Backbone:
């Protein structure tokens, strides 16, 4: 008997190919659905036991099996917000320099170099952060800050504490380096969509480059910049290895940014393989579920914002 | 005067930002060379990972990483290319295609540690042990969305005339796609695949609870498998000097490989253009 092949029935090839393509594409929805389901399923025992207090409790004690997500949530959000606040001005500066100020010939290689920052694996940032940046940061900035800033009311409490190098602020700074490339390339792309005429017209009435960029170009791309910011925030929230190295891994909430803390991803990475029982594992997966929900919301918002502007 | 001063100050600040960005890259690469180069010797590639404080190399970790990345890419490539083809050729602007595009974007930005947790639950828990397969699956899931979106972007660049010319000769659509469209934008798709290899070969978090690690030489994906990123993580955090040295050498190795893949993927389209 001869095998039936699609060569014998060329008209069926189309059908087969389309189906294969469709099944592959549909797999994405199945995958997303399964990821969500598996997180809910895995987190269920912890959710059932702690209920809403899982989100509000700062207790994290594997021995008594009391678990709350607030410490990790705090560290995740604060380090990411610091990262975005630091990366935005630098990202704007880089994007403006590369697309408006420097000659086209050197702009391209410089931009590639900035983009290579995104290719460096997270774990390398972590090692560099812990062994090179943190000691330098402790000696260079933290000692100075605790001598000079810690007396100032309100702000002072943020910069008090022992100069250990690792901690919330260090994590925020390392994260800022990691999200710089994505921020830069999105802002640069947005700048390139502003019509040339607008620039020429403003230069024509005698404006300086500063005035053209700050008063005309940046207001024109406010929306995309905001979208890029949220996208970068989403990146920072889920970052794992870099944070695991430099955040210090302390289950506590402290007003000082110099103190060690923890994040959702760092807690999971640190504790998962040494988890002491099923409830501990379930609580860690519960943290994962919280992270999933936050990044889903943040990334969804960013996508909607960026798409609306793109149209 | 003030306007001019403001302008100069502004330009200086933009230049300074760029210097910071580039400075970080240079500093990281400098540190890697400074600390990693000392351990770049023959033993690194010929010996397996040593016990606590001992001397050895990274052979098993390198081979494990290559195997898992390889399986991951082999699984993700056909699915990704077909899915991207559906989005570009069949789904186009339909509601279903938009939904899939949205979910694909979400999968692309899902923290990789969550992919690790997911694979832990569906593969490690059900099979009862950590394995190279589980690691490969996690890596495949991370590579998949990147391949899908580059394939779609590339296929959208294929001129309609090319498709019409093919269809005009009576060629069925699947053959037009396979033999004309893929060929026309093949380099672009390969670029996407190279970038996703670069991306997954540095992933650490999803391997922590899927492939775990192993200090033995093993090419059997049914067992826990040694890999570079997790080895680097464990050795960097250890108190032993010889382990720390191996971690830095491994870090140098993996970063160079990834940067090379990135530069290659950028150079590929130019090379092709020049040849034709």
Residues:
């Amino acid at each position: 008997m001869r095998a039936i092949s699609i060569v014998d029935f060329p008209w069926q090839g189309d059908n087969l190919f389309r189906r294969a393509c469709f099944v592959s594409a549909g797999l994405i929805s199945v995958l997303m659905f399964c990821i969500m389901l598996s997180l809910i399923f895995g987190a269920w025992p912890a959710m059932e036991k702690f209920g809403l207090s899982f989100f509000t409790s700062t207790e994290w004690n594997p021995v008594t099996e009391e678990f709350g997500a607030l410490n990790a949530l705090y560290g995740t959000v604060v380090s990411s917000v610091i990262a975005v606040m630091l990366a935005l001005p630098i990202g704007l500066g880089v994007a403006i320099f590369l697309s408006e100020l420097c000659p086209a010939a050197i702009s391209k290689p410089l931009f590639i170099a900035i983009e290579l920052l995104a290719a460096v694996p997270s774990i390398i940032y972590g090692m560099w952060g812990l062994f090179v940046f943190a000691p330098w940061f402790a000696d260079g900035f933290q000692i100075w800050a605790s001598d000079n800033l810690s007396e100032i009311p309100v702000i002072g409490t943020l910069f008090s504490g022992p100069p250990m190098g690792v901690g919330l602020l260090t994590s925020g700074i390392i994260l800022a380096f990691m999200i710089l490339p994505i921020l830069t390339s999105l802002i640069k792309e947005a700048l390139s969509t502003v019509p040339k005429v607008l620039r020429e017209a403003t230069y024509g009435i005698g404006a300086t480059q500063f005035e053209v960029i700050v008063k005309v170009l940046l207001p024109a791309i406010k929306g995309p910049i905001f979208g890029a910011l949220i996208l970068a925030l989403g990146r920072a929230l889920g970052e794992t290895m870099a944070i695991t190295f430099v955040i210090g891994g302390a289950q506590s909430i402290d007003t000082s940014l110099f103190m060690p803390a923890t994040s959702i991803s760092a807690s999971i990475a640190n504790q998962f393989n040494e988890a002491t029982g099923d409830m501990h594992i379930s609580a860690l997966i519960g943290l994962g579920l919280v992270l999933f929900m936050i990044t889903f919301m943040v990334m969804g918002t960013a996508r909607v914002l960026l798409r609306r502007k793109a149209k | 005067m003030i306007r001019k001063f403001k302008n100069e100050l502004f330009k200086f600040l933009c230049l300074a930002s760029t210097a910071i960005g580039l400075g970080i890259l240079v500093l990281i690469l400098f540190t890697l060379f400074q600390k990693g180069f000392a351990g770049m010797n023959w033993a690194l590639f010929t010996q397996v990972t040593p016990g606590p404080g001992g001397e050895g190399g990274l052979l098993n970790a390198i081979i494990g990483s290559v195997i898992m990345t390889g399986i991951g890419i082999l699984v993700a490539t056909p699915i990704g290319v077909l899915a991207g083809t559906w989005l570009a050729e069949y789904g186009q602007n339909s509601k279903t295609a938009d939904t899939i595009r949205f979910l694909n974007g979400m999968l692309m930005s899902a923290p990789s540690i969550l992919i690790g947790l997911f694979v832990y639950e569906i593969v490690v828990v059900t099979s009862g042990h950590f394995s190279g397969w589980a690691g490969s699956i996690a890596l495949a899931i991370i590579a998949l969305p990147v391949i899908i979106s580059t394939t779609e972007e590339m296929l959208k660049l294929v001129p309609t005339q090319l498709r019409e010319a093919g269809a005009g000769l009576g060629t069925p659509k699947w053959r037009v796609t396979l033999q004309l469209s893929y060929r026309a934008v093949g380099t672009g798709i390969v670029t996407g695949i190279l970038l996703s290899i670069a991306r997954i070969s540095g992933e650490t978090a999803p391997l922590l609870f899927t492939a775990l690690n192993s200090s033995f030489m093993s090419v059997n994906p049914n067992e826990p498998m040694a890999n570079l990123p997790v080895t680097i993580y464990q050795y960097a955090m250890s108190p032993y000097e010889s382990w720390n040295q191996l971690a830095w050498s491994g870090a140098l190795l993996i970063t160079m490989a990834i940067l090379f893949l990135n530069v290659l993927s950028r150079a590929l389209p130019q090379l092709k253009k020049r040849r034709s």
About this structure: Residues 129 and 166 of chain B are 51 Å apart (CA to CA). Chain B has one domain: 61-275. Residues 61-275 of chain B form a domain with the MetI-like fold fold (CATH 1.10.3720.10). The radius of gyration of chain B is 23 Å.
